[in-house]
Amino acid sequence: MQVGLLLIAIVLSVFAGRLIQLQGIDPSSYAEMAAAEGSEIVVLPATRGEILDRNGEALAETVDGRMIIADPAVTSKVAPELAGILSQRLGVDYIDTLERLRTEGSRFQYVARQVPASKAEKVVADVAEKFKDKDGRPFAGLMTERDPLRIYPNDDTAANLIGFLGTPKDDGSAQALAGLEDSFNTYLSGKDGEARYEVGAGNQIPLGDNTVTPAVDGRVLRTTIDRDLQFYTQRVLQQTVQRAGGKSGIAVIMDSRTGQLLALADYPTYDVSTPYEFSDELYKSSALTDVYEPGSVEKVLTVSSLVDAGLAFKEQKFRVPGQLNRQDRPIGDYWDHGMLRLTLAGVLAKSSNVGTVLAADQFKRGQLRKYLTAFGLGQRTDIGLGGETKGLLPQGAAWTSQVGDRIAFGQSLSVNAIQMVSAVNTIANGGVRIDPTLIQGSATTDEGKAIGSEVATSRRVISADAARETMLMMERVIDPEAGVAPGAAVPGYRVAGKTGTAQRVGEDGGYDGSTTVSFAGFAPADDPRFTIYVLVHSPRAGAGGGSVGGPAFSRLMSFTLRRYGVPPTGAKPNQTPVEW
Amino acid sequence: MSSTAPQVRRLPAIAPRLAQAALERARFTVVPRTRRSRAPRVPFVTFVSIILLAGVVGLLLFNTSMQQASFRATALEQQATDLGAQQEALEMDIQALREPERVARAAQELRMVIPANPAGVLHLGSGKISGRPTPASASDSIPLHLPGPQKPAVLQRPTVKVKVGAGTDGAPASNR
Predict the structure, then answer these.
(1) pLDDT at A35 over 80
(2) Strands A51-52 and A340-343, how do they pair?
(3) Nearest Cα to A352, choosing from A476, A199, A206?
(4) A522 touching B (Cβ < 8 Å)
(5) How far is the C-alpha of A527 from the C-alpha of A257, rounded, in Å?
(6) pTM to 2 decimals?
């Protein structure tokens, strides 16, 4: 009897000891072990947000994709035939695939990544059927794993803006390499969720434990770009640069009233569906990253500032000599002439440097710089793409009187194309500068900055009267007799614009003899709807803003006015005399 | 259970006569023993057994049907995934067909070009046309392809110049 009790006591002690070990010492790890047994954790991947154009057309979207994995232990026997099928069906390299399928001592080799799900599953199913063994069991050498696929349906259209995703990182997260994909990576990514449930033989056990943390999908990024207009702009720009023998070019179309960018083309550019075939120097928007001297297009800013300050008016008379001797070197015009008697409108229409400098002499010190800063020069536009430059607007001691003279006609300062188009658009918009925008609504960049049309601000730079008077002078630029850019005319519409031909700064920091030619303008001049800026770097010698940029401007403006159904205003163009 | 033995409690003599009488009335008496009920047990046991059995069988069936539903759910989920992938593939096809470059190429093959001038505007009220519509010409066509990527000089295919020997009358060259 006592022996029996003792035995029971010993057994109970052992039980108690085990209980303490399980519950007291490390209960959570045992609980996890128990949960892991027969339970399955599935990552619920967040879908990356789409990038859309202004009409909802997809510029970038994510579809369900698969990676195809081979088990060389199984595939090596049928490697040549299998590699043949895979290279034919999936477009992978035959030799490379053959090597992978034969890799010794490995049981995991990637065959293809980011293949659309339906295609991948079909190929694997067909292969499993084709190479089944004698007993009819399917071939088990190929497997699939989830591998979301980002597709860019429009190839090179807006490639400079969208950017692209590289091969996903090891943890499966997206690796954004350029453009909006990069600067809005967090906004687009969302957050992965997780489902944990008990399984038996591949099926969920009913009434078993299961917890689901839903995935938070990435948000949609809607841009202000009009896909079809962007395509046309890119191709017209390509044609313009090629015909002018230029090195590169930029074309921007802006909605004058809202500051929204409808098209922003860079040339050369790349195909976003095959980015690695192109130089990585093209993975950017040079309209933001590259600076240049704007040349005579800047004269409209000088002239409008003069008018706003009450220092000039369009019929004001100037005696313009062929050369103006200033402190360090003479200032001349692009054409040889004797003493000309030009009005201010004539100075702008003929694009006279000498006349502009004479007019700008009336500015007090610092006055022009204040206006140019208000026009947005020397500050980032922050439209949402990384790598933007501020440009260079000299200040303080650097603004000597010679520099001031040259800035008045657009040299000795540097800008990016978006700064310049917004500055010219200020005149189109009645003197109110609107922040340029590329994003509709509002979105937060990875740097934590909210940008977009909802948060864009506007400010008055010059009076509505000064803007109107400048517009009337800019109309004379297009005039076949009075102006220098008749090629920019849009038949039936009033157009205001300005040409620019500026010397280019080479890599050594000095002018290298090449030029940047450009044309900026808006239409209809008396009720502006669109502002367009076209520029070509390093065209062949003799090409000017009027002959290269003008016709491209005309084609783009015609297309845009037609596309958005803007009727002519019917008013007669301004006829302010250019000479006296 | 109350005791069957009658207990006579006597009130003290000082209690009033009325209370004494009430006490006499309230006194307990023995309840006569009733006959034990002889309800049949078999139906009850059968009934309970049937309920138990039905419960167990029902639970089993319920569980089985849940399992069946689970199999079915898995299969349907798989089907939904497949159909979703198929839909995505079809949508990709549509997008490829709607791509501006493809549409432009198809249009130019049909000799259509995008005009370089704005269209005229027909005012429905007055029937007048404003603007200066002009017909498009072949010079308005746009380039259809992006120039290919710039390859390094090493990868450029060299131009091979072959000098054709004169007067050999098709005879093979001596130094081949």
Answers:
(1) no
(2) unpaired
(3) A476
(4) no
(5) 10
(6) 0.80
Residue of B nearest to A154 (CA): B99
Quick one: which of A270, A274, A273, A267 has its CA closest to A252? Answer: A267
Predicted confidence (pLDDT) per residue in A301-320, tens digit: 999 999 999 999 989 999 99
Nearest to B88 among A63, A204, A555 (CB): A63
Report the mean per-residue pLDDT for chain B: 79
Contacts of A157 in chain B (CB under 8 A): 99-101
Place of tokens 């619920």: A44
Burial of B12 (0-12, 13-18, 19+ CB in 10 A): exposed
Q: Are A456 and A326 in contact (CB under 8 A)?
A: no
Which of B93, B108, B114, B144 would best serve as a mutation to test chain A binding (most A beta carbons within 10 A)?
B114
DSSP-derived letter for residue A541 is T
Tell me which residue of A87, A149, A83 sits closest to A118, measured CA to CA. Answer: A149
Spatial separation of the C-alpha atoms in residues A287 and A284, rounded to whole Å: 9
Q: How many CB atoms lie within 10 A of CB A385?
A: 25
Spatial CA neighbour of A286 closest among A298, A263, A262, A268 = A268
> Distance between CA atoms of A337 and A335, rounded to whole angstroms?
6
All domains in chain A, ordered by first residue: 65-133+142-147 (3.30.70.2110), 227-563 (3.40.710.10)
What three-state secondary structure class fits A228? helix
Amino acid residing at A150: R
Is the complex ipTM higher than 0.90? no
Nearest to B85 by CA among A146, A173, A90: A146
d(CA A39, CA A199): 6
pLDDT, tens digit (0-9, with 9 covering 90-100), for A495-537: 999 999 888 887 777 888 888 999 999 989 999 999 999 999 9
Which residues partner with A40 through β-bridges? A197
Task: Measure A207 CA to nearest chain B CA, in Å.
Answer: 9
Is B149 in contact with A562 (Cβ distance < 8 A)? no
Residue type at A543 in one-letter notation? A
Which phi and psi (to 5°) does residue A7 adopt? -60, -45
Q: In the 3-class helix/strand/coil scheme, how is A471-491 assigned residue by residue?
A: HHHHHHHHCCCCCCCHHHCCC
User: A433 with A375: CB under 8 angstroms?
Assistant: yes
Judge whether residue A542 has pLDDT over 80.
no
3-state helix, strand, coil in chain A (%, to 5): 35, 25, 40
* Closest of A250, A251, A297 to residue A477, by C-alpha: A297
